[in-house]
Amino acid sequence: MIVATTRARNLLAGVAVASAIALAGCNDGGAEFDRNSQIGSNPVLPAPKQYLVPPIHVAEVVGWRAGQAPTAAAGLRVQALARDLNHPRNILALPNGDVLIVESQGPNLDPITRPKNPIVSWVQKRATGQSGAKPKGGTNQITLVRDTNGDGVPELRTVLVDHLFSPFGAVFADNYLYVAATDAVLRYPYTLGQTRITAAPVRLTELPGGPIDHHWTKSLTLSPDGKLLYATVGSNSNITENGMEAERNRAAVWEIDRSSGRSRVFATGLRNPNSPNFYPGTNTLWVVANERDELGPNLVPDYLTSVRDGGFYGWPYSYYGRHVDPRVMPQRPDLVARAIVPDYALSSHVAALGLTFYSGSSLPPRYRGGALIGEHGSWDRDELNGYKVAFVPFSNARPSGKAEDFLSGFVSPDGKVRGRPVGVTVDRTGAVLVADDTGNVVWRVSAAR
User: Fold this and answer.
1) In sequence order, what DSSP letters do the residues of 308-377 get, joined into one string?
2) Edge-to-edge, what's the strand order for the sheet holding 432-436?
3) Which of 29, 67, 130, 374 keeps 20 to 30 A from 228, CA to CA?
4) Could you say which DSSP state residue 395 is in?
5) Please, what is the end-to-end C-alpha distance for the chain in angstroms?
6) Strand partners, 231
7) Is the pLDDT confidence value at 17 over 80?
8) How many Å apart are CA 117 and CA 23, to the nearest integer?
9) Average pLDDT in the 359-370 region?
10) Cα distance between residue 353 and residue 361, in whole Å
11) Closest by Cα among 369, 313, 306, 320 to 348
12) Would you say residue 12 has pLDDT above 90?
């Protein structure tokens, strides 16, 4: 008699799940749902569905062929600022015009062995293109690109700092570069114009990392007065299946004193918040957030929201305000009763990771003050969703209209993935820079000539 090992049983279970996923993706009726009804301040929320195997559609990653580029909105043009990167995730435009590109791979920390682990690993690698040809150059580093005359054609590209632990967020202030690795905020002495950092960093503040580090991206922004940092920390699970202890101080926005490293939890109940930004001219902090999975292809909408000090936004007990998640036990009606409704829905499973407010002046006036959102794109629904940079108009510092495509074409006409946008920022000239972590490109969007 042959006795299967634990690893073999898990692998067989993964294969079975993969087969079921293919069937689920083909037979789910979610494609009939109007995704536009989930964009705005009052999204349609269908009844939740629970699946033995939820619908999944992991598109093949093909990258960008020579001469190809995303499609910019009317009146705009797009060009590659940098190619042949290794998973560019975020971008920081410095005051002197230099651009820092954060290239990063996840830490792959998860000591919990489950039957679905093999298929989860396969999905992640296929969705990010890691199962195909390897990109050139290193990763877990920050690359500096210098475009002195602002024409989008750099004269210099060099590695500023490397051997980082899954970095994501970065900000600059008062001759210091702050980097959010997956387990800590690091502070480096840095002078504008410097092309290599050799000094060891100060570990300013420890952040929740391993031994599990499910949502590993940690973003950063500065307060308007420059005294505080705000860091986002995602959850360690979908809906606390790893236990509540694994969620300590996670699914939250942290506030960090820039001089001392003192920290406190600023807001909670945000499953996977990213890219904190203060709306220009205000003290109002905004984030984009990825909501929970496995309640159906059209639940739950990812969102853009302002964040209040002490606010609770529902996770894991409820979604989009006070809609109770029946899977979470024990329930907490006391917390659900004070859950804050997000400001603006972006549609389900778009995986919003990037956010910036357009404060430049070189693009058409209609973009000024609006939000630009990098939607990394779905794999946990039967119909692909996201895979673009969306623009949300603002008026009086609030969302004021339907989201529209700013940069699209990341999915080919035959349903294959060319790239996946993440971080979005504005450079010194007013052009918009977009990190494409699957296409391994940073795109530059400027006004058409």
Assistant:
1) -TT-B--TTTEETTTEE-TTSSS--HHHHTTPPPPSEEEEET--EEEEEE---SSS-GGGTT-EEEEE--
2) 76-82, 441-447, 432-436, 421-426
3) 374
4) E
5) 74
6) 220, 254
7) no
8) 19
9) 97
10) 24
11) 320
12) no
Phi/psi at 241 (nearest 5 deg)? -70, -15
The answer to whether residues 317 and 289 touch, using CB atoms and an 8 Å cutoff, is: no
Backbone angles phi, psi at 126, to 5 degrees: -70, -40
How far apart CA 445 and CA 432 sit, in angstroms, is 5
With tokens 């929740």, the residue in question is: 208
CATH of domain 6-447: 2.120.10.30
Residues 255 and 307: their CA atoms lie apart, in Å, by 12
CB neighbours of 85 closer than 8 A, spacing ≥ 6? 101, 103, 135, 137, 143, 440, 441, 442
Domain ranges of the chain: 6-447
pLDDT digits (tens, 9 = 90+) for 143-167: 999 999 989 999 999 999 999 999 9
Cβ–Cβ < 8 Å for 190, 98: no
- Give the global pTM: 0.90
Q: What gap in Å lies between CA 206 and CA 217, rounded to an integer? A: 14
Peptide bond into 167 cis (omega under 30): no
Q: How many Cβ atoms are within 10 Å of 44's Cβ, its own excluded?
A: 15
Query: Closest by alpha carbon to 142, among 86, 189, 96?
Result: 86
The contacts of residue 113 (CB under 8 Å, 6+ apart) are 6, 10
Q: What is the mean pLDDT of residues 395-415?
A: 97
The pLDDT tens digits for 90-118 are 999 999 999 999 999 999 766 655 555 55
Strand ranges (DSSP E) for 195-320? 202-206, 220-222, 228-233, 252-257, 263-268, 272-278, 285-290, 301-307, 318-319
pLDDT band at 338 (very low <50, low <70, confident <90, very high): very high
Buried-state track 281-299, b at ≥16 Cβ within 10 A, e below 16: eeeebbbbbbbbbbbbbbb
Interval 320-342 mean pLDDT: 97
Cα–Cα distance measured from residue 215 to residue 199, given in angstroms and rounded to the nearest whole number:
29
167 token code pair: 């970095």
* Average pLDDT value over all residues in the chain: 90
Q: Residue 141 has which token pair?
A: 């580093």
Are 307 and 279 contacting, i.e. CB atoms less than 8 angstroms apart? no
- Measure the CA–CA gap between 169 and 182, rounded to whole angstroms: 9
Which residue has tokens 């917390």?
335
What is the rounded distance in angstroms from the CA atom of residue 397 to the CA atom of residue 281?
9
